[in-house]
What does this fold into?
Amino acid sequence: MHPIILFDGDCLFCHASVYWIAARDRKAVFRFAAQQSAVGRTLLETMSAPGGDTVVLIEDGCYYVKSDAVLRIGRHLAWPWNWLAAVGFLVPRLLRDHMYDQIAKRRHRLVPKRDHCQLPPLELRSRFLDEWPR
It folds into this structure.
């Protein structure tokens, strides 16, 4: 089963992060869903996982949030990201999560605002668990 990344569908930084991850996920390991979608809400509820201001990674029947999710995602990506993720686990979780929270607090200012949402390219849509207009 593929690991699933649940992201904040209302956040442009989160959308940009999904595209960034997909571009470096050469083996197409990950599947994606917005936390606000029917699929996302069902998965959050089923796993009793928190949502909202954190990315959620569901992998091997467990969920991971904040820096643990980010580093576990990084382990599946192409070099050098997989190596950096391995090194990142050496940093204590308290410090990693503090850094994550600081970025999460500012995420809406990190990406320019748009007047519309961009749909994923056709080749990427099959990796989303949400329904897309045809």
Summary: The two ends are 26 Å apart (CA to CA). The mean pLDDT is 89. Strands lie at 4-7, 31-34, 56-59, 62-65.
